[in-house]
Amino acid sequence: MEGNLSIKTALHYGSLSGLSVFVFFVIIHFMGYNVFGGAPFLGFWIPVVFIIMATKFHRDHNLQGVMTYWQGFTIGIFTTFFSAALFGLAFYLFTLMYAPELLDQYKMQALTSMEEGKAFMSDAVYEKAMEGIEQVTIGSLAFSESFNKLLGGLIISFITAAIYRRKPQQFV
Known about the structure:
Elements: H1 2-30, H2 45-62, H3 69-97, H4 101-117, H5 123-134, H6 138-164
């Protein structure tokens, strides 16, 4: 029973998180900021809030106020997975249908960064990196953005599980 409740909770909060992060992304885009620069980092707190909410809800409502570290980590990582997957899908569809110029924007920024760092790498590494940038597609970019969110959520899930775990009270 706990497994179904944890998936349901993670799906609920993960969906809200993924949609919120995507809406923030779209707002940044329409405000004219570089969506691959520093501005989107301001939205880092959005999935953190939803992971915390999912963990607290799961502990207090699904587990009757008692939660092990593993249970807390599990709800956090599932919430993160659903959030990252929904964001990745929305990012892919948005870029494909509405803003294909985002792919070129990403490539230009990556090429500029490579030019700035050229002095720190060999010619072979530089050429290989340049080829890699040219081969980026909308799909691989969406996957990369989702994967980055998954890694961030993994770290937040470790921390949140430690903070919100609760052992059963022992009455003497």
